[in-house]
Write a structure and sequence with these properties.
301 residues; 8-stranded parallel β-sheet; 5-stranded antiparallel β-sheet; globular
């Protein structure tokens, strides 16, 4: 898919859909079903001339078998007739879509005007995709990879060095010197001490859509300006926000704005240096559809 669409081009497609009037607050919910191997997800969406549905599997035991943790397929349909147009690899689509969503958020939230220090948590496909996404929107001065698997972390750092970037592996304390922190892991507990994150830094967390799992801690969420794809989706699925809310540290109104607000220019400027900026993504069906349509049209079938 990367041959047809870069994360930057996929981010353009997402922005175009939002500018055309799509309201993520009204999009269908993700349906999740627990199964013996993990979880099955059903994600339908319709917009404009197209409709589509992703059926994804999340199999935590797969990596030990040498198989991808995320599996699935995406069926793209003609909107008026619901005639099938294409069947896409669902895991590959997710690997492109999620960094594209992050890239779109970073265009509006990440510090500008100077090379940035990136701390990247994770060493799987999403980590590689998010490195490319970050590079598509900002110049990077340094990349520090923090990974549970030391060998995987070093491979990603070596990949970054191959792109001409100063890169090394490090520890969670590296967030103290970071301009960007990107979390794309399967963690269920916070990855770092949120008190260490600087007031001008931007944090992106994409690893979970479960209300009890999180990558960031209450300390960070309490002091950050928080942006999400959809308030409704975040308040259903974003453990990074729901756990602090359950602790009484924040309320539902703590969310500063949405991706649509950022794209439309509805957010006031000037607050980025006073506190950290946190973008929490849970992944939504409208995003899969927008990127699938962009891939279909780029293929020119």
């Amino acid at each position: 898919m990367a041959e047809l669409l870069t994360p930057a081009a996929a981010a353009d497609a997402l922005a175009e859909v939002l500018r055309a009037g799509l309201d993520p607050e009204n999009c269908p919910q993700r349906t999740a079903l627990a199964v013996p191997g993990g979880e099955l997800l059903l994600m339908p969406a319709a917009s404009g001339s197209y409709a589509g549905v992703k059926i994804a599997g999340v199999a935590p035991g797969n990596p030990a078998r040498g198989l991808p943790r995320i599996t699935g397929s995406y069926l793209l349909l003609d909107g008026p007739t619901l005639r099938p147009l294409a069947l896409l690899d669902g895991a590959a689509l997710t690997t492109l879509r999620t960094p594209a969503v992050s890239a779109l958020a970073l265009r509006h939230l990440a510090p500008a005007g100077r090379p940035l220090r990136l701390v990247l948590f994770g060493s799987g496909p999403q980590a590689y995709g998010h490195l490319e996404a970050a590079l598509s929107v900002r110049e990077l001065a340094e990349v520090v990879v923090v990974a549970r698997d030391p060998a995987g972390g070093e491979r990603l750092a070596a990949h970054a060095r191959g792109l001409g970037l100063p890169a090394r592996t490090g520890t969670p304390k590296a967030v103290a010197d970071a301009d960007l922190v990107i979390c794309c892991t399967t963690a269920r507990e916070p990855l770092f001490d949120g008190r260490l994150v600087g007031p001008g830094a931007t944090v992106v967390a994409v690893g979970s859509h479960e209300p009890t799992a999180r990558e960031t801690d209450t300390a960070l969420v309490r002091r950050a300006a928080v942006y999400v794809e959809s308030r409704a989706a975040a308040l259903r699925e974003a453990g990074d926000l729901l756990v602090p809310e359950a602790e009484g540290a924040i309320g539902p109104g703590h969310i500063t704005g949405t991706l649509a607000d950022l794209v439309a220019g509805r957010m006031p400027a000037g607050g980025a240096q006073s506190c950290p900026q946190l973008f929490k993504s849970v992944g939504m069906a409208w995003e899969d559809l927008a990127v699938a349509v962009a891939l279909w049209e780029a293929a020119g079938v």
